[in-house]
Amino acid sequence: MRKIDPVVIKETTYVAIWTIILSVIMQAVFLIIQKWDYTVLLGNILSGVVAVLNFFLLGLTVQFSVGKDEKDIKNYAKLSQMLRLLLIAVVLCVGVLLDCFNTWTVIIPVIFPRIALLFRPLFWRNKQ
User: Fold this and answer.
1) If you average pLDDT over residues 100-111, what whole number do you get?
2) What is the rounded distance in angstroms from the CA atom of residue 115 to the CA atom of residue 31?
3) Given CA atoms 55, 10, 124, 108 in this order, what sign does their dihedral have?
4) Residue 62 class from Cβ within 10 Å (0-12 exposed, 13-18 middle, 19+ buried)?
């Protein structure tokens, strides 16, 4: 097994921190509108963990693709994307179908990594 690149760990940590921050904000919104219950928390945890896991697996895909020829990279990337999307789809379906998860808090956190990446240029410093 290859060692996980520190950049993958660093970027995943960044996304995880933003996911936690945005999750806390979402929990606060549910508290403010007086719709909070345990299903809100469970849905948020389920989807937030899967969103960060998806980003981590994407980073591993990029890391393991380095050094392979172009055809292998394309096939590996397509397989990785398909499996990661399948994982997200299964989790979203389970989260929506089971009553112990709030539907909105299962769906919304999936986009938290994208929001985190939108804010990345504000905090990224080019250290050359």
Assistant:
1) 97
2) 22
3) positive
4) middle
Q: What is the spatial distance between Cα 96 and Cα 105, in angstroms, rounded to a whole number?
A: 9
**Which residue in this structure is represented by tokens 């956190």?**
109
Q: What would the pLDDT profile of 50-90 be if each residue is shown by its tens digit?
A: 999 999 999 999 998 888 888 889 999 999 999 999 999 99
Is residue 105 packed enough to be buried (19+ CB in 10 Å), middle (13-18) or exposed (0-12)? Answer: buried
H helix intervals, 33-111: 38-65, 70-97, 103-107
CA distance 59 to 19: 16
> If you count them, how many residues does the chain have?
128
